[in-house]
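Q: Now give one record:
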Amino acid sequence: MSDRSPGRTAIAALAADLVCVVVFCTVGRSSHAEALTPSGVAETSWPFLIGAGAGWLVSRGWRRPPALLPTGVTVWVATIVVGMLLRKATSAGTAPSFIVVASLSTAVLLLGWRAVIALVRRSRVHHG
């Protein structure tokens, strides 16, 4: 992402985070044999998407979009905390096992792509 302008990098990183959240929700719906309709995925995704957006605002993600710290970790934590609070407020499931699975899955997704970028950048510095 470093070859892009800062604005384009931020937009690409935000899009990556939002896609990760939708992928998490889509896989979750599929694993529970729930319909993979656009409205069904949206119904499951919206609390977590709002959480990811809150994480972007709190961390000022546009400043260091691909950074694990503070952006990645803040977006991940906000995705889970805000997402679960919104689910609870709307009487959606927040079982402890779901919180654990959601936390681990979104960590892999939201932190994973950032870790890959960090490794690629580190490799370029050492080899380039």
In short: The chain has a mean pLDDT of 94. The chain has one domain: 6-127.
